[in-house]
């Protein structure tokens, strides 16, 4: 994107003296759009927060406003996104559909073991002290016959996905 912006700036600047006032305004708009595109890319390469007890807006923007379920964060994530998950137990669904799993997409990193909202340092990470559990025990607690077939799957996996600091339990593919 930066190379494209430099290329566009060069050509727009080269012909600036021949532009009418209306065309100069259009040139400024194109430059602005190019700069906005770069800012959008930076925003996409970000961190999304997940904490089951977060009290805020549930938009993933901070520990206070973290998504309260991991599925929402995985849906919002794009390649280059890091998802930081606070201690607690997360299930792929609140229903009983055994086919629903957590799905990690290409280029996304999912990291558990964070202290999360309410802790003195919510960014503190210790997988032993702050366990993050992905559980397939979705229906009757303790009855594995109704658990998710697969708790976590990776679709279109490459070498750029990372899953770290999570305990995955309770899957039952029969």
Termini, distance in Å? Answer: 48 Å
Structural class: alpha/beta
Largest sheet: 4 strands, parallel
Number of helices: 3
Radius of gyration: 22 Å
What is the number of strand segments? 9
What fraction, in percent, of the residue positions are helical?
25-40%
Overall shape: it is globular
Order of helices and strands: HHEHEEEEEEEE
Mean pLDDT: 83
Order of strands side by side in the largest beta sheet?
Answer: 1-2-5-8
List unreliable stretches of 5+ residues: 1-12, 32-44
Into which percentage range does the β-strand content fall? Answer: 15-25%
Structure, described:
The chain has 174 residues and is α/β, with parallel strands linked by helices. 25% of the residues lie in helices and 20% in strands. The strands form 3 sheets. A 4-stranded parallel sheet has the order 1-2-5-8, with helices on one face. Strands 3-6-9 form a 3-stranded parallel sheet, with no helix packed on it. Strand 1 (47-50), helix 3 and strand 2 form a beta-alpha-beta unit. Helix 1 (2-14) packs antiparallel against helix 2 (21-44). Mean pLDDT is 83; it is low at 1-12 and 32-44.
């Amino acid at each position: 994107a930066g190379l494209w912006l430099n290329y566009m700036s060069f050509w727009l600047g080269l012909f600036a003296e021949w532009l009418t006032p209306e065309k100069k305004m259009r040139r400024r708009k194109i430059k602005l759009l190019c700069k906005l595109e770069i800012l959008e890319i930076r925003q996409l390469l970000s961190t999304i927060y997940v904490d089951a007890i977060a009290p805020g807006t549930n938009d993933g923007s901070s520990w206070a406003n973290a998504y309260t379920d991991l599925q929402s964060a995985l849906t919002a994530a794009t390649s280059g996104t890091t998802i930081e998950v606070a201690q607690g137990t997360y299930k792929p669904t609140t229903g009983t559909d055994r086919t629903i799993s957590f799905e990690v997409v290409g280029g996304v990193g999912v990291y558990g073991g964070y202290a999360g909202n309410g802790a003195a340092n919510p960014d503190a990470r210790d997988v032993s002290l702050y366990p993050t559990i992905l559980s397939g025990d979705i229906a009757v607690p303790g009855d594995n016959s109704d658990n998710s077939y697969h708790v976590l799957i990776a679709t279109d996996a490459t070498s750029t996905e990372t899953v770290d600091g999570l305990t995955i339990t309770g899957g039952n593919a029969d």
